[in-house]
Fold:
Amino acid sequence: MGITNNRRAALKKTIAGSLFLGAMPYFSFSKPIVKPLKMNQNFKHSVCRWTFNDLPLEALCKSIKSIGFNAIDLVGPEDWHILKEHGVESSMCNGAEISLEEGWNHTEFHDTLVKNYTTMIPKVAEAGYKNLICFSGNRKGMDDAEGLENSAKGLEKIMPLAQKHGIIIHMELLNSKVDHPDYMCDNTPWGVELCKRLASDNFRLLYDIYHMQVNEGNIIETIQENAVYFGHYHTAGVPGRNEIDDSQELNYPAIMKAIAATGFDGYVAQEFLPTNENKLASLQKAIAICEV
Structure:
């Protein structure tokens, strides 16, 4: 995939896209084409903000509620007031991290990260939210053992504060084969070992199904064996990171059944890049696929 198909590029387009949309009416893609779904309540649904950056946040809030769910991932504190105005949850908060590439595995970033998370954790709690994302950072020539040790030493400094405020810090598993070359937390065993070293109920992994299919496969068995360490899930189709329907290789109904069987009651957030003209119809279909 090219650079246009990742978060960094999408975020750069946010301002331009908002200006463009502000000058013209909404098209059909901004309206679901079927009735609201009846949810089974096996787990909670969400959608990642950056994948719908061509819609103003207010419009996305209204649209997801018309589909039948009320949570959006990866919204920072500057926009929480918009979510609250529409009765929408921030299911995975961001804004404390430096970047995907500069993370907890390198000690030179620890002072900044500790300061950022020490400031952000109480804000998340005060807003009534629970989840806050973090990243390992890139290897930059560092071996995985050293990165693991560094990450544990840095993160343990913020765990008491996270526990005090009831906030769960989630490190995201990202693939290093296609989208994020050199990213360290690119495999489940590394992330699980970090969880074991921290030994805190306030630290979990964000298991991104798309990324882990690209990097290691064996999705269902991995979920079954490591569910206790997974606090949040992201979806997308493989290959291409597009719709999760039968145009791609993952069997999402089977994956969702496996997640539900673990007793998971957190959020599953859609993070695919829609290709259909009616993008919200694609989102509604994805939610329906995941309703098991």
